[in-house]
C-alpha cells in the first residue's frame, strides 16, 4: 500500500511539472507566429534581466522535480524519515487479479478478499488456522462422543437433547468448511491462485473433497425410520483429515512445537484408551454381564436392586460403568496388574487385539518421548561436542591453562544465554529477500542509534544493515588499541566495555553505545587512528561494520557520502565543544599565543586535528555555496537565452512571464 502511494505521489509531481511545461509551450507557439514589427535591442535586454529574476521563483519549486529514488515499503515502516500515512480504500466488487500479487515481496496476510462478490480464503493467514482449529474441535467432539453414545446407550438417554444441538452445530461447521475449502487459494508456479473457478476445480480434484462429502452425509434422516441410533453418525469420522491438516500447520507456526507434540501425544493415548474402554463394554454387553470373570461384572442381591434403581433414576450409572471400563482398558493396554484370563474365543481375540494395541501405544509413547528429549537437549549436546573437540585440540597443542579456562567459560556462557552457534546455517534456508527483511527488522534500530546514520535514506540503511556482523567478546578481550588504524565501527548490543586513555579509565560503554564510525568514513584531515583503548569487562556482544563494506555501499550512493561526512564533522565538533565545557583548559588553545607548541605530542595532535576539521568544514561550506551560485547563474542564463530566442518584443516577454508565474502558482496550490 505504501509503495503504491509513493508511485502515485511521484506521478502527481510529474503531472504538475508537465502541466507547467504545456502552458509554457502554448505561449512559445503563440510567440512563434510571424510578426513584422521591428524591436529595438535595448528594451529586450533590459527586460531579460527582470524576467530572469522573477522566473527564479518558478525554478526553486521543489515539486517540479521528480523523486530520485523509490522507497521500500518494508524499510519505510522502520524509517524515522517523515512521511504521510497511506490508506488504501477498497470498494466492494473490485476484482483482485492473482497475477498482480507479488508473492516474493509482499506478505500474504489477508484471509478474506472480495472478488466479484465472492469470498477468497488465504491459506497462509492466521485466521484460516483458527478456522481449522474450530473444525478440529468438531472432529474431536465426534471422535469422543459417537463411540461413547453407541456403547452406553441407556445412560445417554437423558442427554440426547443437548447432544442433538451440539451435533447439528458441528454439522453446520462441516458444511461451512466445504464452502471455505472451495474458495481457499493454492500455490501454483510460486504464486497464490485465488480465482474462484480455479480454486473450486482444484478442491474438487482432491481426495479431501470426497472425504468432506462423506462426513456430511445426511444419514440422520434414518432416525425417522429406524429410530435414534448414534451408529448413523459414524460417517462424521471421515473428517479426520482436516484435523491432520491443522496438526501439520500448527507445528510450523507454533513457537513451542515440543510442548504441542507432547499435548497431542497425551490426547491420542487417552483417545485410544477411551475407544478400547467403549469396545470392552460393548463386548461385555453382547456376551452378558458377569458371564465370565473377564467381562463387565453384574451386581447381585437386594442391595443391588436398589442401587440399580437409583442409578437408572439419577443417570449416574454411566459414570461408574465408564470409569470401570476405562480403568480396565488402561491396565490391559499397559500390561500391568493381575487380570482374569479370557475363556471364550471372542474374548481371547479381543484381549489379543488390546494387548497388541497396548504394545504399539507404549512404543509410540516411548519413541515420541525420546524424540522430544533429544530435540530439547540437542543444543546442549552440540555445545558439548564442540567443547570436547576444542579440549582435545588445546591439549594436543599445549595451550596454557588460563586460556583453556577462558574457552570453557565461553561455552558455559553460550549455554546459559542460549546463543545459537549456527545462525548462518539457519539463514541459508531463507530466500535472500526474506533474509534481508529479517536482519533489517532485528538490526535496523541498532544501526539508527548511530548519529551519522539517523536520517539516511531507507535503501542505504538496508544495504548497511545486511552487512552488519555479530561478534562476541570474552572478559578482558581487547576490542581496539590506541594508535591502531580503525577499519571497523562497533555498536554495543549486550555487555559492558571500558574505555582507557594512557592507562586512565575514561568511560564505560553499554548497550546502545557505538564507536569508530568516524574512522571508517576516512575523512580527509580527520584521521583514522584509534584515540583510546577499549576492552570488554564481561561477555559482550557487538555489531561490526567494516570500512570496506561501507565504501562498497557508498559507491552506489555517491550523494550520501557528502552528507555522512558533514554529519561526522558536526558530531566531532559537538564532541569537542563538550570536552571544552568539561575541561576548558585541557584542549583549548589561545589563538594569540604559541605556548601550546610546547605541549606533549597528544595535545599537539589534538590541536592539529581541530584545525584540520575546521578547514574541512569551511571547505565543504564554500563548496556548497559555489554549487548553489553556479546553479543560479546557469538558471538565469537559460532563461535569458530562452527569452532571446522566443520573445519577439518586450510585450511578449511580459505576457510570457505572467503566464509562467500564474501557472507555477496554480501548480503550487495544487
C-alpha Rg (nearest Å): 40 Å
Q: Major β-sheet, in short?
A: 4 strands, antiparallel
How many beta strands in the DSSP annotation?
A: 12
Q: Percentage of helical residues?
A: 55-70%
Low-confidence stretches: 34-52, 54-117, 585-600
Strand order across the largest sheet: 5-12-7-10
Q: Into which percentage range does the β-strand content fall?
A: 5-15%
Distance between the termini: 23 Å
The geometry reads as elongated
Mean pLDDT: 70
Tally of individual helices: 23
Secondary-structure-derived class = alpha+beta
Protein name: Cyclic nucleotide-gated cation channel alpha-3-like
Subcellular location: Membrane
Membrane topology: Multi-pass membrane protein
GO molecular function: intracellularly cGMP-activated cation channel activity; protein-containing complex binding
Amino acid at each position: 500500500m505504501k509503495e503504491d502511494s509513493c508511485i502515485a505521489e511521484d506521478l502527481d509531481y510529474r503531472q504538475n511539472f508537465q502541466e507547467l511545461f504545456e502552458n509554457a509551450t502554448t505561449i512559445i507557439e503563440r510567440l512563434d507566429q510571424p510578426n513584422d514589427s521591428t524591436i529595438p535591442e535595448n528594451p529586450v535586454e533590459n527586460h531579460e534581466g527582470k524576467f530572469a529574476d522573477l522566473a527564479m521563483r518558478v525554478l526553486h519549486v521543489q515539486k517540479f522535480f521528480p523523486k530520485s529514488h523509490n522507497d521500500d515499503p518494508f524499510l519505510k515502516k522502520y524509517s524515522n524519515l517523515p512521511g504521510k500515512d497511506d490508506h488504501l480504500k477498497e470498494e466492494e466488487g473490485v476484482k483482485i487479479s492473482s497475477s498482480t500479487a507479488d508473492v516474493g515481496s509482499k506478505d500474504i496476510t489477508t484471509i478474506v478478499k472480495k472478488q466479484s462478490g465472492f469470498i477468497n480464503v488465504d491459506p497462509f493467514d492466521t485466521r484460516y488456522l483458527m478456522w481449522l482449529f474450530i473444525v478440529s474441535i468438531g472432529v474431536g467432539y465426534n471422535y469422543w462422543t459417537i463411540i461413547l453414545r453407541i456403547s452406553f446407550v441407556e445412560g445417554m438417554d437423558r442427554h440426547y437433547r443437548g447432544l442433538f444441538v451440539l451435533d447439528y452445530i458441528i454439522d453446520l461447521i462441516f458444511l461451512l468448511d466445504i464452502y471455505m475449502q472451495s474458495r481457499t487459494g493454492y500455490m501454483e508456479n510460486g504464486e497464490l491462485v485465488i480465482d474462484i473457478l480455479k480454486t473450486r476445480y482444484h478442491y474438487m480434484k482432491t481426495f479431501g473433497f470426497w472425504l468432506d462429502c462423506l462426513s456430511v452425509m445426511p444419514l440422520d434422516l434414518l432416525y425417522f425410520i429406524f429410530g435414534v441410533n448414534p451408529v448413523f453418525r459414524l460417517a462424521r469420522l471421515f473428517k479426520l483429515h482436516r484435523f491432520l491438516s491443522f496438526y501439520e500447520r500448527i507445528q510450523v507456526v507454533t513457537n513451542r512445537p515440543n510442548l504441542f507434540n507432547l499435548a497431542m501425544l497425551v490426547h491420542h493415548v487417552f483417545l485410544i484408551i477411551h475407544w478400547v474402554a467403549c469396545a470392552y463394554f460393548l463386548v461385555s454387553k453382547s456376551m452378558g454381564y458377569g458371564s465370565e470373570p473377564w467381562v463387565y461384572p453384574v451386581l447381585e442381591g437386594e442391595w443391588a436392586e436398589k442401587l440399580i434403581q437409583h442409578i437408572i433414576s439419577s443417570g449416574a450409572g454411566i459414570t461408574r460403568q465408564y470409569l470401570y471400563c476405562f480403568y480396565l482398558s488402561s491396565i490391559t493396554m499397559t500390561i500391568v496388574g493381575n487380570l482374569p484370563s479370557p475363556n471364550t474365543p471372542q474374548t481371547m481375540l479381543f484381549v489379543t487385539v488390546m494387548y497388541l494395541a497396548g504394545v504399539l501405544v507404549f512404543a509410540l509413547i516411548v519413541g515420541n518421548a525420546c524424540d522430544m528429549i533429544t530435540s530439547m537437549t540437542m543444543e546442549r549436546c552440540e555445545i558439548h561436542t564442540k567443547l570436547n573437540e576444542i579440549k582435545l585440540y588445546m591439549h594436543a597443542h599445549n595451550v596454557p591453562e588460563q586460556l583453556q579456562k577462558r574457552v570453557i567459560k565461553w561455552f558455559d556462557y553460550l549455554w546459559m544465554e542460549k546463543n545459537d552457534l549456527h545462525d548462518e546455517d539457519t539463514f541459508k534456508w531463507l530466500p535472500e529477500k526474506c533474509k534481508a527483511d529479517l536482519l533489517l527488522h532485528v538490526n535496523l534500530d541498532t544501526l539508527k542509534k548511530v548519529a551519522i546514520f539517523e536520517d539516511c535514506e531507507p535503501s542505504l540503511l538496508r544495504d548497511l544493515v545486511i552487512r552488519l556482523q555479530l561478534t562476541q567478546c570474552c572478559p578482558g578481550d581487547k576490542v581496539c588499541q590506541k594508535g591502531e588504524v580503525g577499519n571497523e565501527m562497533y555498536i554495543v548490543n549486550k555487555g559492558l566495555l571500558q574505555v582507557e586513555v594512557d592507562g586512565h579509565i575514561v568511560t564505560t560503554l553499554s548497550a546502545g553505545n557505538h564507536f569508530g564510525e568516524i574512522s571508517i568514513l576516512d575523512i580527509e584531515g580527520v584521521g583514522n587512528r584509534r584515540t583510546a583503548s577499549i576492552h570488554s569487562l564481561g561477555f559482550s556482544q557487538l555489531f561490526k561494520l567494516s570500512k570496506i563494506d561501507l565504501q562498497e555501499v557508498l559507491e552506489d550512493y555517491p550523494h550520501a557520502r557528502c552528507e555522512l561526512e558533514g554529519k561526522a564533522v558536526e558530531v566531532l565538533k559537538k564532541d569537542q565543544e563538550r570536552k571544552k565545557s568539561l575541561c576548558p583548559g585541557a584542549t583549548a588553545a589561545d589563538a594569540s599565543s604559541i605556548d601550546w607548541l610546547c605541549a606533549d605530542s597528544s595535545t599537539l595532535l589534538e590541536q592539529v586535528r581541530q584545525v584540520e576539521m575546521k578547514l574541512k568544514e569551511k571547505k565543504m561550506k564554500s563548496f556548497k555555496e559555489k554549487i548553489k551560485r553556479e546553479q543560479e547563474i546557469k538558471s538565469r542564463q537559460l532563461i535569458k537565452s530562452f527569452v532571446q530566442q522566443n520573445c519577439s518584443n518586450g510585450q511578449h516577454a511580459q505576457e510570457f512571464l505572467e503566464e509562467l508565474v500564474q501557472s507555477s502558482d496554480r501548480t503550487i496550490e495544487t
